[in-house]
């Protein structure tokens, strides 16, 4: 058993006081008496039992009635016993943790019940600190509330002294409390005498008083740290476990709620007589407002009359219908309770301003009605009579209007982004020529920024002289796409630099109730397109010339081929005639002329055969003929 316990991380002890597990060997004759003695001992309830029995039905039947954590049979190997003991120890720890959690829960429930039932706050707080000190076995538990001065605290209860209360302390001597105030989170110092948060003086004081650990837990009230639960461990207790810190944090929160409720209860009890007087005064005040109520009963807007504490004195039927609350149920209730605003600050600022004599109007407040509807009310508030410090609050339901405004704003933003992202220029102007829309495309096309265009630039400055008036005349006539519309046409815009920019444009007039409101035009820059057209035209021209040259070359080759044969014959016969004639003969000279002209024709035919390009020259006025010399000069 000793070897198995060592392997399981356990140790064998002599007495029951230190024991957590008990292993009983029921296979031995002395096992039964030993088990009975164990079960009769005061420690039996806190022990986890493991039994060793003979294999067989009888042994297990005997052990089953004991409800042990585990049952073993002989023979038992050392490693198996170690595993069984380790598992039993884990079960024991889980049971102890559950027991401690149950104790914490029970104490918390008891404290909560006392918070709800006890009206003696001083006795209640002392009882809380005392019971915490007893449960956690700590030296002292103290409740410290923060004073109005940031450097001052007030001890309202201490576990070790019922008479200790309203003792003022300097927080400069308590760094742990100041840290809780700063962070709003628990501060735990497990080694207080060496903790860096404490100064040298505080460390020496802690060590001298034998304090080992300190925990400071915040008491949050309405979102602010208004106090601290301070606990200190001394003597045999040296640290606080995580579970204990969580439990103390929960108690601190519950105590904070109890303190807040107690202060409210005391305030309510202390004001009973004042309330009676105030109620009578309110009834008199409500009676004085009766003529106004009769008038407000027929108003379509909601109207509420408030007293100086923003409580409702009167609510007209329209307001009651909007808030889904009968008017009598609203009377006497605070405005917050009646309207349940999403943002209390906006509503209270409106009412406070009016109570100080300044009227406010058109303030949107989101409220939640008694039926759970979410509304947006446009509220106005004004002082009713200075001597009564009364406020009149009027409101109307603008939920649908605000929703529509939001949708229109979204649509407007979308259209603006769409217009700005357009490559084409989009320009709109009113009937006086003032530009009211100038997108990014217009900036690129005209050279002006949108700020310059909207700042006083006239639409007439964007066109050549007279063009703007001509376009407006075309828009108002039916010939160019119908009245109010201008179909696609080509015009020119004036760039800031003075350059004329060719554009294709469409335009239209926008009407409102049959009346012209403004005009809008969409312009496409044609400079790149026209440059491309010019290039295409040049290519076509060159292509035509190339085709014409090819035709001429082919024709010249054909003509030269066809003319060479008859010319050769003419020249041959002319030469034969010249040889048979003498120069004195009358026919020799005509034959010689025929021969020379035939040679000249042959030269012309030779040139025609060498034509490779189309070159012309003037002939008889405007007529153009082929220039043979230039058409064949590149051959030379």
TrEMBL record:
Query: Where would you find the membrane-spanning parts of this chain?
Result: none
* Catalytically driven reaction(s): ATP + protein L-histidine = ADP + protein N-phospho-L-histidine
Question: Per its UniProt record, what InterPro entries does this chain match?
Answer: Biofilm_reg_signaling, GAF, GAF-like_dom_sf, HisK_dim/P_dom, HisK_dim/P_sf, PAS, PAS-like_dom_sf, PAS_4
Which organism is this protein's natural source?
A: Pyxidicoccus fallax
Look up the record and give one Gene Ontology term from the biological process aspect: regulation of DNA-templated transcription
What SUPFAM superfamilies is this protein classified in? Answer: GAF domain-like, Homodimeric domain of signal transducing histidine kinase, PYP-like sensor domain (PAS domain)
EC number(s) on record?
A: 2.7.13.3
Spell out the protein name for this chain: histidine kinase
| PAS domain span | 411-482
Please give one Gene Ontology molecular function term for this protein: phosphorelay sensor kinase activity
One Pfam family assigned to this protein is GAF
